[in-house]
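TASK: fixed-backbone design
INPUT:
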């Protein structure tokens, strides 16, 4: 058996496999790239294929679409798994594809989970893509900008696939009912579609399991409930969706939207996110986005972290929710955050200024003789605990990093800072003015 042949199996194929469409016209979803006049549809119809990267969530039809493209353009179709294959297998497939090209037969090489190939493995495809030995179609659930080599990416057209809508999933399930030999009302199919979260394979699996547990000629609601058990949310703790969700949570808190913050938090909790990771991110929000507008925010966030650590799951989840709501409703200021960034930028851009002598300790007589500590003013020995002593190097005199807002507690800090600066200006004013 060659690498281009599929092994026979006596076991029945899963419903999701049996329901793969045979024609491009029967493909459901992805109208933004496959509708009339859309870019991928035009490429296929005009038979002007280039290498492609199909990027999208699981169960959106990446494998099916690659198969249909090969069939429509009369190319040999070679499925290839990045999980199971290495350099040796790549070379064997490439040699076979090159032989077919010499015979006038084009080859579509479909690589499932291309992001799992390392740089050397991805580089191995480049010469064959450039020579036209293969039309490479890669499928990935991860952002190809991060997971596919730039050289391979530059030679491929990236098409983003979207999660299927509930209406599209219901249409697919209706097609599958004759295959499982049962009838079902639209409400039951909609329930399956909602639980599938845009994943056709999940929807088919639920239907197949529920059909096997149903008696009679109709799909049983209790069988559907048992098959679903728990909604399987699209989530990969190391993947892009993880960062998309935490970004949504952070920005909802920053935007003072507690309802959105609770929604994104619930999404991550239900997907099994590490609770301590969420607690750390809430602490970061308290520091970065609330700061001194509400100094208690960081206290609440740290208390949340300790509560989560002490109580665990599920009791600690309520502490996360409480902290998220508190932070969302707290007054916002990133003044201290921006001030540190500006100070660090200046430190990186300019030479390191020496510490002024009057700010240096003088533990030895020699250091005192050199002027260390001379002219130092001890704030606690002065009225109002204020001094006219400069604490920045002379080259940076007058530099300001921190500009407080007028929100929350920081408004009081602004009043205090303005009063200090007014006092300093008064002290420096020549007598008689």
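OUTPUT:
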């Amino acid at each position: 058996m060659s690498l281009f042949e599929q092994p026979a199996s006596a076991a029945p194929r899963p419903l999701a496999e049996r329901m793969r469409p045979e024609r491009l016209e029967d493909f459901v979803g992805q109208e933004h790239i496959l509708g009339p006049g859309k870019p991928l549809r035009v490429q296929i119809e005009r038979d002007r294929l280039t290498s492609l990267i199909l990027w999208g969530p699981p169960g959106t039809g990446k494998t099916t679409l690659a198969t249909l493209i090969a069939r429509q353009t009369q190319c040999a179709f070679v499925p290839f798994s990045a999980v199971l294959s290495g350099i040796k297998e790549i070379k064997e497939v490439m040699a076979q594809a090159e032989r077919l090209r010499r015979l006038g037969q084009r080859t579509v090489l479909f690589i499932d989970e291309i992001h799992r190939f390392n740089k050397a493995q991805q580089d191995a495809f480049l010469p064959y893509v450039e020579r036209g030995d293969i039309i490479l179609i890669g499928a990935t659930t991860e952002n190809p900008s991060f997971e596919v080599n730039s050289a391979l990416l530059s030679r491929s057209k990236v098409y983003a696939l979207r999660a299927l809508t509930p209406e599209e999933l219901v249409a697919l399930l209706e097609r599958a009912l004759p295959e499982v030999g049962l009838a079902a009302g639209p409400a039951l199919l909609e329930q399956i579609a909602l639980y599938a979260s845009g994943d056709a394979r999940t929807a088919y699996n639920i239907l197949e399991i529920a059909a096997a547990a149903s008696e009679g000629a109709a799909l049983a609601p209790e069988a559907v409930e048992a098959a679903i058990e728990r909604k399987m949310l699209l989530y990969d703790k190391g993947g892009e969706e993880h960062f998309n969700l935490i970004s949504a949570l952070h920005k909802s808190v920053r935007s003072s939207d507690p309802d959105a913050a609770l929604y994104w938090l619930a999404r991550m909790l239900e997907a099994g996110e590490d609770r301590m990771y969420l607690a750390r991110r809430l602490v970061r929000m308290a520091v970065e986005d609330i700061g001194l507008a509400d100094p208690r925010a960081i206290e609440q966030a740290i208390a949340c972290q300790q509560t989560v650590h002490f109580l665990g799951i599920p009791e600690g989840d309520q502490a996360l929710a409480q902290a998220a709501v508190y932070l969302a409703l707290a007054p916002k200021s990133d003044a201290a955050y921006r001030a540190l960034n500006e100070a660090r930028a200046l430190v990186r851009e300019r030479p390191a200024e020496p510490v002024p002598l009057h700010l240096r300790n003088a533990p030895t007589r020699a250091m005192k003789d050199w002027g260390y500590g001379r002219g130092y003013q001890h704030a606690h020995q002065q009225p109002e605990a204020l001094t006219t002593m400069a604490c920045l190097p002379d080259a940076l005199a007058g530099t300001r990093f921190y500009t407080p807002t007028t929100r929350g507690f920081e408004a009081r800090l602004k009043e205090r800072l303005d009063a200090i600066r007014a006092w300093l200006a008064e002290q420096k004013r020549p007598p008689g003015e």
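COMMENT: The beta strands are 52-55, 76-81, 107-112, 135-140, 157-160.
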